[in-house]
Amino acid sequence: MIGTVLLTGGHLVGVPALTAPVILAIAGAGFVLGVPHGAVDHVMAARLSRGRPIVLIAAAYGGVAAAAWALMAWAGPIALVTVVTLSALHFGLGELEVSRRLTGWRPDRLSAAAIVVAGCGALLLPLARSGDQLSEVAAAVSPGLASLLGATALQIGLVVTWLVAALVALTASLRAGHSAVALDIVLIAVLGMVAPPLVAFAVWFGGWHALRHSARMLTVEPGCAALLADGRRRAAARRLIRLGAWPTVAALATIAALGWFTVAASDPTVVLAEVLRLLLALTVPHMVVVLWLDRTDDPEGAVVSDRRRARSAGRRS
Q1: Closest CA to 236 of 302, 310, 288
Q2: How far apart are CA 124 and CA 201, in angstroms?
Q3: Backbone angles phi and psi of 9, in degrees to 5
Q4: Taking 80 as the threshold, does the pLDDT of residue 67 lie above it?
Q5: Pairwise CA distance, residues 167 & 185, whole Å
Q6: What is the C-alpha to C-alpha distance for residues 70 and 83, in angstroms, rounded to an integer?
Q7: Mean model confidence pLDDT for the chain
Q8: Cβ 199 vs Cβ 11: under 8 Å
Q9: What is the structure's pLDDT at 78?
Q10: Nearest partner of 123 among 174, 171, 172, 161, judged by Cα
C-alpha cells in the first residue's frame, strides 16, 4: 500500500505520472493476484452445509457466478451497480471482521457501520474520482456505466458518505485505544486519493483484501487451524494453497480464455473489462459463502471441535 502511494504519488511533486499502459498492467496484475483468495470457498461451504458433496457445492458456486456474469453482460448497468454495491458491502464487512480479530474490539453499531463504510474507501474513493482509465474500462464493461460514474452528484455523494463514515470510525477507534484500526483507515484513504483510481482499487484488492481474507481462512479451515495451533504455520499455508489450487487454476484459465478472445481487438482496456466482469461475477457466490461464515452461530467453536478431532485422530494413528 505504502509503496504504491510512493510510486504513484510522484505527480503531486512534479514527477511524471504513470502512463495508461502501465496503469492497465498494474491493475490487471492486482486483479489476478486477488483471484486465489476465494479459492477455498467450496471447502468452507461444504463444511458449513454439514458435509454436502464438494461436487454439488462447486456446481452451485459456479452456477451462481455464471448467472451473475450473464446478468452483468446483458442486463445493463443496473446489474453492475447492484453487484458493485454488494461488493463494497463485502469489502467493508471484511475490514470490520479483521479489526475484530486483530484487536478483540466489539464496537457499537454506529461505529461498526462507520468502519464498514470507511473500510471500502479503496473502492468508493476511486469511483468518486473516476479518471480516464477507469472510465474507459467502465464503458467497456457497460456503455451506460461510465456516464453513471461520471455524474457529479454520485461523486460528491460517495466522497461525503466516506468522509463522514471515516470521521466517525477514526474517532471511535482512537477513543477505544485501537490506533491500528485508525491507521488502516488512513492508509486506505491515502491510497484511494493519491493513486490512479484503477491502480488504487486493484492493488488494495490483490494486496490487502485478498491477503487478509486468506489469513482468516487459515484460522477457520479446520485442518489449517489445527496446524496453526501446533505452531506449523508454513504447513498451514501449504495446506491452504493445496485446497485452493484447482479452483485458482480454473479461474485463471477462464480469465486467460477471455483475454485470448478479446485481445483480438488490440485494446487492453477490453481485456481488463472482461477480467473485471468475471471477478465481479465470482464475487457474488464468494460474498454468499463469507456472509454464511460470518453468520454462523459459533464458527470458532466449530473450529475448536474440528481441531480436537484432528488431534485425536493423529494420536490414534
Answers
A1: 310
A2: 9
A3: -90, 5
A4: yes
A5: 10
A6: 12
A7: 85
A8: no
A9: 83
A10: 161
Helices (H), the chain: 2-8, 20-33, 41-48, 54-74, 77-103, 109-119, 121-129, 132-141, 143-149, 152-175, 179-194, 197-204, 210-220, 222-229, 233-262, 268-294, 299-316
Q: Is the pLDDT of residue 300 over 50?
A: no
Other Cβ atoms less than 10 A from the Cβ of 252: the count is 14
Closest C-alpha among 301, 252, 303 to residue 278 = 252
Three cell numbers written together for 116:
464498514
How far apart CA 233 and CA 239 sit, in angstroms, is 10
Per residue in 32-53, pLDDT (tens digit) is: 899 899 999 988 998 888 878 8
Helix, strand, or coil here: 108? coil
Domain boundaries, the chain: 19-311
Rounded to whole angstroms, how far apart are CA atoms 199 and 133?
A: 10
Count of all residues that appear for the chain in the document: 317
Cβ contact 18:199 at 8 Å: yes
Q: Determine the distance from the C-alpha atom of residue 247 to the mean position of all C-alpha atoms in its chain, rounded to a whole number.
A: 17
Q: Calculate the alpha carbon distances from 226 to 149, 207, 221, 242, 301 in Å.
A: 46, 26, 9, 16, 13
Could you tell me the three cell numbers for 302? 466449530
